[in-house]
Amino acid sequence: MHLHFRPLLGLTVAAAIAFTILVGLGAWQIQRLHWKLGLIASVNRNLTAPPISLEGALAMGASAAQYHRVVLEGAFENNRAAYIFATDTDGNPVLHVIVPFVTGRGTLLVDRGIVPYRMRPEAYRAGEITGRTRVVGVWRIPDAPGWFTPSPDRVHRIWYSRDVSAIARENQVLLLAPVLVEADATPNRGGWPKGGQTEVHFRNEHLQYAITWFALAAGLLVIYFTYHRARGRLRFDRRTA
Q1: Residues 59-66: contacts with CB within 8 Å, 24+ apart?
Q2: How many helices (H) and strands (E) does the chain have?
Q3: Fold of 68-191
Q4: Rounded to the nearest 10 degrees, what angle do helices 9-48 and 206-230 cross at?
Q5: d(C-alpha 192, C-alpha 194), whole Å
Q6: Residue 68's CB: how many other CB atoms inside 10 A?
Q7: Which of 61, 130, 169, 195 is deepest in the core (most CB within 10 A)?
Q8: Considering the entire predicted model, what is its pTM?
Q9: Contact 65/59 with Cβ under 8 angstroms?
Q10: Which CA distances in Å does 168 have to 42, 129, 132, 165, 174?
Q11: For the chain, where are the alpha helices, taking DSSP H only?
């Protein structure tokens, strides 16, 4: 069998560039896949590791301490509580109770958990903790509010994003670190707030994206050679003895 191939120069250059880009995008998604798997493994290790002290979290740095469980000792400033609107797993409106927590090193915001929207503020007041106490929670750096995040309801102290810096400014609180410590599920008096609301969701569709890019690259090759064959520029001749 003898191959005859006379490629069109312009089409070949364009196809080569497009093929390189598609394969490059597929390779990049494979790299992102490995990065995402490493991130998920790291977060799972942090969440299941023994709690660290506040000093340990600060020594690590706010970003490095992300998703670590941390132990805080101090007192809540209940008169400066704020609320973040959200929905529970059933889609019902709830409020996360955000309270400044004063430690020996400074003040942090603690998400004590959720109360039903209709029960605010009675549900929170029933579970207020006064005096010195100990809190175990997950160290989180919240995402910044988006373009379409509603403005806060300052009259009722309700926010629609976990903008810890803005909440602290509104309540005239100087934060030790721009983080939110999400309290664990330790029961509170009266049953509210309900802690243990930490949710970790990482979209991991990089493998599908990689397959898509590589499939497009393969499809481009098929179209390229099919076109040349249709134009008589690619053919196979069977040699006879």
Answers
A1: 62/139, 62/141, 62/177, 62/178, 62/179, 63/141, 65/139, 65/179, 66/139, 66/140, 66/141
A2: 5, 10
A3: OB fold (Dihydrolipoamide Acetyltransferase, E2P) (2.40.50)
A4: 170
A5: 5
A6: 20
A7: 195
A8: 0.80
A9: no
A10: 29, 20, 21, 5, 7
A11: 9-48, 54-60, 122-126, 164-170, 206-230
- Tokens encoding 27: 């390779």
Q: What is the DSSP string of 49-74?
A: SPPEEHHHHHHH-TTTTTT-EEEEEE
Q: Which tokens in the block code for residue 82?
A: 């704020």
Selection from 109, 116, 157, 96 nearest residue 135 by Cα:
109
Residues 6+ apart with CB under 8 A from 112: 96, 97, 98, 99, 124, 127, 183, 188, 193, 195
Can you read off the two tokens belonging to residue 21? 């880009």
* Biggest distance spanned by C-alpha atoms of the chain: 100
Distance between CA atoms of residues 95 and 224, nearest Å: 58
Residue ranges per domain, the chain? 2-40+204-237, 68-191
Give the pLDDT confidence score for residue 200 in this predicted structure: 83
Is 181's pLDDT higher than 80?
yes
Residues near 133 by Cβ (< 8 Å), separated by ≥ 6?
73, 74, 75, 76
